[in-house]
Design a protein that fits this description.
Blueprint lengths: L9 E7 L6 E6 L8 H12 L6 E7 L5 E5 L10 H4 L7 H7 L6 E9 L5 E9 L19 H11 L2 H7 L10 E2 L2 E2 L5 H6 L3 H4 L4 H11 L7 H8 L1
Parallel strand pairs: 1-5, 3-6
Antiparallel strand pairs: 1-2, 3-4, 5-6, 7-8
Length: 232
C-alpha cells in the first residue's frame, strides 16, 4: 500500500544501507498487541541480524539537524539514559507520515551506543533521501560507515558480553562531569580507547568531522580520524 495513503491500514517505510536495495519496513496499524514502534524494531532486527533486545533507539531526521527519537521498551538490560527517554514523539500514523514527508525513502545510518547501564546497543537513524547523495558522503549519511560491513563490526561489539563485562570497571561515574550546567567531558572515552572500540563509537566522515571540530576542542578524546590512523 502507498505510504502516503492516510486511509491505509499499513504504512511502508523504505530504507537501505549503502550498497544494498531498499528494505520494506511495514507498519500494521491494526496490530495493537504492542506499541507500534516495536514493529520497526522487529524489522530492523531482521535486517541487521542484531536482536531487538540489543537495540536502543531509532531516529527520524526532522529537518536539517533535528531528530525525533523512539526508544525500545524491550531493550535488555533496560535503558537508563532518562534524558533521551523523555525526548519522545508519539509513534502513530499521522506523525510517521509527517516524518516521512509523504512517501520519501531513507538511508539507514548506523550508530553504536553505550547506555548509562554500561551496555552497548545499536541506534539507527532514518536519513531522508534529500539529505543523501548517491555516491558521495554527506553530513548525515556515509557510504563508508553506513553499510553491511560496518554493521557486522558493530554487531560483534553489541553482542560481545565478555567485552562489556570487562569494560564495566573502567566506565566510571559520574559519566559526564558538570561545569556551569554544561557537559564537558565524557569520562568513558578512556575505556573506549582502551578496549579499541572508539573508532566505531564516533562518526569519522570528513563532513561530519568538520562539523564537530569545535566541540572536540572541549572534549577529552583523540579526534576520530587521528585515532583511526593509529589503531586501525
Amino acid at each position: 500500500m502507498s505510504a502516503d495513503d492516510i486511509n491505509s491500514y499499513k504504512t511502508v517505510i523504505k530504507a537501505k544501507l549503502s550498497g544494498e536495495d531498499y528494505h520494506d519496513i511495514v507498519i500494521d496499524w491494526t496490530d495493537t498487541s504492542q506499541p507500534y514502534e516495536q514493529q520497526v524494531f522487529s524489522r530492523l532486527a531482521e535486517i541487521s541480524g542484531i536482536s531487538v533486545e540489543r537495540t536502543a533507539e531509532f531516529m527520524f531526521m526532522d529537518g536539517g539537524d533535528r531528530y525525533e527519537f523512539f526508544h525500545n521498551e524491550r531493550a535488555e538490560p533496560k535503558l537508563e539514559h532518562t534524558l533521551l527517554l523523555s525526548m519522545q514523539l508519539e509513534f502513530n500514523r499521522e506523525n510517521l507520515l509527517n516524518l516521512m514527508n509523504g512517501n520519501e525513502r531513507f538511508g539507514l545510518s548506523l550508530r553504536l551506543s553505550c547506555d548509562d547501564n554500561k551496555h552497548f546497543y545499536m541506534w539507527y537513524a532514518f536519513v531522508p533521501e534529500r539529505f543523501m547523495d548517491e555516491t558521495e558522503c554527506t553530513l548525515n549519511f556515509c557510504h563508508y560507515l553506513d553499510n553491511r560491513a560496518i554493521l557486522n563490526k558493530l554487531k560483534a561489539i553489541v553482542t560481545n558480553d565478555a567485552l562489556q563485562s570487562q569494560m564495566k570497571d573502567f566506565l566510571v561515574q559520574p559519566r559526564f562531569p558538570y561545569f556551569d550546567d554544561f557537559f564537558l567531558i565524557e569520562r568513558w572515552h578512556h575505556a573506549y580507547r582502551r578496549f579499541n572500540v572508539m573508532q566505531y563509537y564516533y562518526r569519522t566522515c570528513y563532513p561530519f568531522y568538520q562539523n564537530v571540530m569545535f566541540v572536540c576542542q572541549n572534549f577529552d578524546y583523540v579526534p576520530a580520524q587521528l585515532y583511526l590512523r593509529t589503531r586501525g
